[in-house]
Amino acid sequence: MSGTAGPGRRRLAIAVPTYNEAANVGPLLDALDGELAGLADVDATVLVIDDASPDGTAALVESLADRYRHLRVEVLRRPGKRGLGAAYADGLARLLARPEIDLVLTMDADLSHDPRHIPAMLDAARHAQVVVGSRYVPGGSTADWAWYRRLVSRLGNLYAQAWLGSTITDSTGGFNLFDAGLLRRVGVETMTADGYGFGLELKHTAASTARGVAQVPITFVDRRQGQSKIPRNTIWRNLVLVPALRGRLRAAGSGPRPRPAPGGAERRSPSAAQGGDRAGS
């Protein structure tokens, strides 16, 4: 895809970190291109942020880039495996440096985040600066998880809700849409968490000053190809991160919680619009 966005089109950037995702990234890009074909008001760029994958993920994406009609595809090659948080920090900094970008979507490369949910997220973004793809609102699910994995995930998210005073149900999920201007004001470079905690911190920090926070139900499915990159200590690190994050957000100040809106979303009420949303993710 080439050229510039037409008048009235929203400019969407999609950040996709990868490490050894050669088996998944092609099908993901195909699915994104197909989904975006039906969105006449969106001009999309996908940035694949690759940590020198030994399986040749970056080279594969570069070889595929010209085949897509409805999205531009770029690759940010990093010199080695430095972790998910650092990948997002580098990729988001690159995207946010472009003043024409209106919206930024984060998602996984392993097809666990289905592009079919993107139209609903973009629709929610018309009234919310943070849109959370949630497994834990009505209509959301983790279809192929064992009961104990669902329990651990649900308890972890309830823990974050309780500590942070949040109404947002999915703190740990990585499928999120942000207003680009909001992220520029927040300052991605100010995030201190690394690994999977980076997304949790970014989501809560952005939501704490957002003009509207929404949740859209998603169905999360496990990867079909490749190996999980989630470190074993992720749960314990997030348990420590959440109380520390509460302290930082309280020191910065946060306003009332967003009120639930129809359709699984949360919108700011008129009174809340004066004071800001309570942080949530």
Please outline what is shown here.
By secondary structure, the chain is an alpha/beta fold. The chain has nine helices and eleven strands.
Low-confidence stretches: 255-281
- The DSSP helix count reads 9
Q: Element order, helices and strands?
A: EHEHEHEHEEHEHHEEHEEH
| Head-to-tail CA distance between termini | 33 Å
Query: Pairing-aware structural class of the strands and helices?
Result: alpha/beta
The major β-sheet equals: 7 strands, mixed
Report the β-strand fraction as a percent range: 15-25%
The outline comes out as globular
Please report the total strand number as a whole number.
11
Cα radius of gyration in angstroms: 18 Å
Mean pLDDT: 85
Spatially, the strands of the biggest sheet line up as 3-2-1-4-7-5-8
Fraction in helix: 25-40%
Structure, explained:
Helix content is 36%, strand content 19%. With 281 residues, it is an alpha/beta fold. The strands form 3 sheets. Strands 3-2-1-4-7-5-8 form a 7-stranded mixed sheet, with helices on both faces. Strands 6-9 form a two-stranded parallel ribbon. A two-stranded antiparallel ribbon has the order 10-11. Helix 1 packs parallel to helix 2, helix 5 packs parallel to helix 8 and helix 7 runs parallel beside helix 8. The longest helix is centred in the C-terminal third of the chain and has 19 residues. The C terminus is likely disordered.
